[in-house]
Amino acid sequence: MAIDLGSSNTTRYHSLADHADFSLPNADWTWLALVYPESTADIKYLISTGLYGNPASFNLFVYNTAAGKGAGLKVESGYPELATTTPVAHDKWNWLYATRRSGQMYVGQIGLGDSSAIESTGTANFGSSDSSVGPYIGSRSDLTANRMWKGRWGQVSFISGSGLTAAQAVELANGAPILGMHFAPNIKFLLHGRTASATAIIDIVGGKTATRFGTTYGTNEEDTQTPYIWAPQYIRSIASAGAAVTGTVAYTNVNDTSSASGTTTITGSVAATNANDTSAAYGTTTVTGSSATTNANDTVSATGSPVIVGTSATTNANDACSASGVVGSAVTGSVAYTNIDDTASASGTTTVTGSVAASNANDTSSASGTTTVVGFSATTNADDICAATGTVEATAIVGTVAYVNIDDIANASGTTTVVGSSFTTNTNDAVSAYGLVNNGTIVEAALTTGITSTDKIKKPGIPVDAPAWLKTFLETIAGRRGNKITPPAFQDLQFSATPTKAECEALYQYVNQVRTSVQDILTRLDS
Questions:
Q1: Which of 37, 279, 313, 485 has the lowest tally of Cβ within 10 angstroms?
Q2: Are 235 and 201 members of one domain?
Q3: Is residue 79 part of a domain?
Q4: Whether 201 and 259 share a structural domain
Q5: Is the same domain home to 289 and 145?
């Protein structure tokens, strides 16, 4: 969406209270905005924290086209004004930025879809700066009528600790979402101009409130460029929830450096997707009590005693697919699981009744513990690449079980007594296990003769009983959904003894076609 202040604006703007996040550090920083200036004779101020030239003030503005200048920047009282020497394109969407990087100040501009940014630079001869005045968006801080912003704005952000480069400005101008950029972790403030109908807009990163002033704003319009992650190389972030959440909510996500804590009561459908998740989470959860979760690469363990009733499904940022399953009977004792991305084996003693999951075929090391299992055992964790299968019979397995599969790197050892059904090859083993169970087992002669192999299928099929998500994933990767990636046909290019320009351009065009096909394949596999 975009906030339309109009071409004759004299009273419409937003303002925020002062906050430490708005202080300019004695290091790299960036103010960045997506704007649509309209053609007027006035200088249009977009961001202001004090009068032009006042100590510790910051002002980012746009000159009218007749002035022969573009974006203008004035910081502090003793620092000279910077301005680009090419007018900003009016009646068009542009990215404007003021940034400090590696001891230099820059003010820059680039139109949406353009391939290069226009910058002006000068030495940053001041340290940190704090005006003690919260930013005004769409006006100068003194609210002078002929210095109000004329036009629209869609996004305004402040980044502390990163200086925007011209190359990054080109990325933004060509559709990259700001929350998918490398500097995204340093964003302190991001105001998304969703609608002018609300009396306040909440900063989507830091939660700061921008209060609306003035009336008769223009009609809301669709986003020209969204700040959210949406393209395959960025994967859009979506957040949703059903019924109410009450209490203190604490989550420990994949990139947290320490555990979250708090007491949570959640009822209804809960699905939280963070900016660095590869796909949306889903599931219905009822949680009562203290909830604390530690993900595979957290540096500190979370603590808490959860009581969960219903269907619990959580997808974390480093899972290859969505989790699913039903939480059934109670689990008592010390539970120890070793998942694929754990760095060491878990240990403990567990008594389980109902559905149980131990070590799956693609874990990096085995789980350990003593388990009593009753019923059917087949559990797939969210980051497993395929489902585990098998039936736990009523009869007992006694002793030390050791299997050697063809693709093991060392022999297993142990003594085994098996009574009932023996299932030794898992779904995701690269080849079948083999061996002979000879403690009273009778092998039918027909099973030793083998089966004649006949090639009937030109390419692997998708099992009919494959889960819907796996079927969709394989069809997409294999190009069976009308999205096949076709490399360019072979071309017999001829060259003269001294190649001509046309011959070289033909070769360059063909190489680019091949590179585009390879990039499409890599993009599909990465996403």
A1: 485
A2: no
A3: yes
A4: no
A5: no
Distance of CA 24 to the CA centre of its chain: 28
Give the amino acid at 391. Answer: T
Q: What is the pLDDT of residues 239-290, one digit of tens each?
A: 333 334 455 545 555 556 666 666 555 454 445 455 555 555 555 545 455 5
Contact 285, 266 (CB under 8 A): yes
Q: Do 174 and 95 meet the contact criterion of CB atoms below 8 Å apart?
A: no
| 361 domain-assigned | no
Name the domain count of the chain: 3
Last residue of a domain, one of 298, 327, 356: 327
For strand 371-372 and strand 350-352, is the pairing parallel, antiparallel, or unpaired? parallel
CB atoms within 10 A of CB 338: 21
Q: How far apart are CA 265 and CA 249, in angstroms?
A: 8
Last residue of a domain, one of 271, 305, 327: 327
Task: Extract the tokens encoding 8.
Answer: 């004759």
Distances in Å between the Cα of 98 and the Cα atoms of 64, 122, 189, 303, 443 are 18, 12, 15, 44, 78
H or E segment and range at residue 136: strand 136-137
Same domain, 242 and 195: no
3-state secondary structure 309-376: EECCCCCCCCCCCCCCCCECCCEEECCCCCCCCCCCCCCCCEEECCCCCCCCCCCCCCCCCCEECCCC
Pair 165, 304 in one domain: no
Q: DSSP character for 131?
A: -
Contact 212, 199 (CB under 8 A): yes
Q: Which amino acid is at 277?
A: D
What is the C-alpha separation between 259 and 42, in angstroms, rounded?
52
**DSSP letter string, 47-109:** EESSSTT-TT-EEEEE--GGGT--EEEEETTTSPPEE-SSPPPSSS-EEEEEEEETTEEEEEE
Q: 3-state DSSP call for residue 249?
A: coil
* Domain enclosing residue 234, as ranges: 230-327
Same-domain check for residues 146 and 258? no
User: What end-to-end distance do the CA atoms of the chain give, in Å?
Assistant: 27
pLDDT in tens, 428-450: 666 665 554 444 556 566 666 66
Question: Which range is least confidently modeled, 78-92, 198-212, 412-426?
Answer: 412-426
Q: Is residue 21 part of a domain?
A: yes
- pTM, entire model: 0.47
Q: What is the largest distance, in Å, between two alpha-carbon atoms of the chain?
A: 98
Asked if residue 358 is part of any domain, the answer here is no
CATH of the domain at 108: 2.60.120.200
Looking at every residue in the chain, the average pLDDT score rounds to 75
DSSP state letters, 198-215: SSEEE-TTT-PEEEEE-S
Q: Tell me how many degrees the CA angle 160-165-171 measures, rounded to the nearest 5.
A: 105
Q: Are residues 128 and 16 in the same domain?
A: yes
Same domain, 53 and 92: yes
Contact (CB, 8 A) for 69 and 87: yes
What percentage of the chain exceeds 90 in pLDDT?
Answer: 38
